[in-house]
Amino acid sequence: MTLLIILLAVLALIVLNSWGKVNAFLAFLLVTIPAGLALGLSPTQVLAAVQKGLGDTLGSVALVVVLGAMLGKLVAESGAAQQIAAVLMGAFGAKNIQWTMMTTGFIIGIPLFYNVGFLLMVPLIFSVVYQYRLPAVYVGLPLLASLSVLHGFVPPHPAPTALVALFHGNLGLTFGYGLLVALPAVVVAGPLYARTLRGIVTVPLAGFASAPRPANELPGRLNSFLSSLLPVLVLAGVYGLQAGLPAGGAAAPVLAFLSDPGMVMLLSVLVATVSLGRAQGKSTSAVMDTYGAAVRDVAMLLLIIGGAGALKEVLVASGAGLAIAAGLGGTGLPPLVLGWLLAGLIRVCIGSATVAGLTAAGVMLPTMAHSAVNPNLLVLAIGAGSLLFSHFNDSGFWLFKEYFNLSVRDTLRSWSAMETIVSIMGLLGVLLLDWALPLVTPALARF
Fold first, then answer.
1. I want to staple 351 with a disulfide (CB 3.0 to 4.6 A). Which of 122, 213, 366, 393 is the partner?
2. Domain locations in the chain?
3. What's the pLDDT tens digit per position in 310-340?
4. Distance between CA 225 and CA 302 in Å, rounded?
5. Cα(110)–Cα(146) distance, rounded to whole angstroms?
6. Contact 37, 301 (CB under 8 A)
7. Rounded Cα distance, 263 and 251, in Å
């Protein structure tokens, strides 16, 4: 019955948003409240869950989204994105732009949370799209596939890091195995799959469209790269210091503060205000006008993300995720496949990859004592499952749809399909590693 209610809620969202042309935030509210009542919550509990879901979701992403939009708009309007795009295209050519984007996403996706990386790279993607008249989905999907995979598979991202600790795995081995599994998944879901989507015609979000500027008006190359990628550099430096210094040392609280995505983005915006604003001849008021326009661009997007969070919280509060997990717990499937399936179904029903991963991990934890499953591979299997079929109840779906200005149908066939390919490829990679490691490990031990 739980699955049927969730399915009907998703179908209602599709009908309201696609056929009824109802505003997405309003559609979420119109679906979430009846769904909560149908799942057994009282009216008071439904309202409390809606408020908590809105508050928790916006509390976790609003700072990053708003500051990321500010940085992104300044990167676009200053000409820094145009400068970076020109360097990349000059070095690798238009033929290899997908592979260039994929590699860029793979590098910055290791330290950056997905939302930060998305907002940081959107101006670069759109600059390439507008300057070289290439399809937006064709250019952007390989980069975003990299960001998504690394967020789901590889520490220091939240869910994989938590699962390593929960299963008593090895952080270094999980990181190494995660990269091995992530690379083929990104190649298939990114450059290869995106080639089938060249026919999707869209005009991306107007806020990040800027007319090409003469070369003599662009910021310098070094300034463009450093100002745009400062969040990556800050996080990489902080993680390096955290790895090299004692965990409980005097610097630990400061490093933890600096590693917060919101603080990283705030620092980056402050630096860019000078390097891409004042240093390029812009007045402070002109830079602030740019930031104000950026906030207007993402205001409705924030509400939509909050609506997705409200639906997610209602499903969590009703116990839907635990009910699904309990129903699958006694199937007798191999632990790696079961962990992937549990995370996948919870992800489809609830929307949050982190919630899906942690819920599946809680169910799988008791089986660890009765099986010889590799804990590091189980982390990756659950991480792969947690990315399965992102759709209406996932904030990532709406970020992609709204920024790329796509229809629901095209978002499903591009973003949702890419996430599903990533998830399935991730499981296949984990199973291949599980088969190969017993053969390779004894040979490596002899050296």
1. 393
2. 2-437
3. 887 887 888 876 676 666 656 678 889 988 9
4. 28
5. 9
6. no
7. 16
Output the six-digit token pair for 328: 């699958």
Interior CA angle at 78 toward 74 and 81, to 5°?
A: 85
> Is the model's pLDDT at 445 over the cut of 60?
no
Both structure tokens of 305: 């993300």
Residue at token pair 């003469």: 214
Q: Is pLDDT above 90 for 400? A: yes
Question: What digits encode the pLDDT tens for the residues 324-383?
Answer: 666 665 667 888 998 899 889 888 887 878 778 877 886 677 666 667 889 999 999 999
DSSP 282: -
End-to-end Cα separation, the chain, in angstroms: 56
CB-CB neighbours of 438 under 10 Å: 9
Q: How far are the Cα atoms of 93, 363, 380 from residue 163, in angstroms, in the given order?
A: 40, 12, 9
Burial class (CB in 10 A: 0-12, 13-18, 19+), 100: buried
Residue-wise burial string across 136-172, b where 16 or more C-beta atoms lie within 10 A, e elsewhere: bbbbbbbbbbbbbbbbbbbbbbebbbbbbebbebebe
Asked whether the beta carbons of 144 and 154 are under 8 A apart, the reply is no
Rounded Cα–Cα distance for residues 261 and 211 (Å): 30
What does the pLDDT average to over 150-157?
Answer: 81
- Alpha carbon separation from 99 to 103, 387, 416 (Å, rounded): 6, 22, 21
**DSSP letters of 298-312?**
HHHHHHHHHHHHHHH
> How buried is residue 308: exposed, middle or buried, by Cβ count under 10 Å (0-12/13-18/19+)?
buried
Give residue 325's pLDDT. 64
Helices of type H across 154-283: 158-167, 171-187, 193-194, 221-228, 230-244, 252-258, 261-272
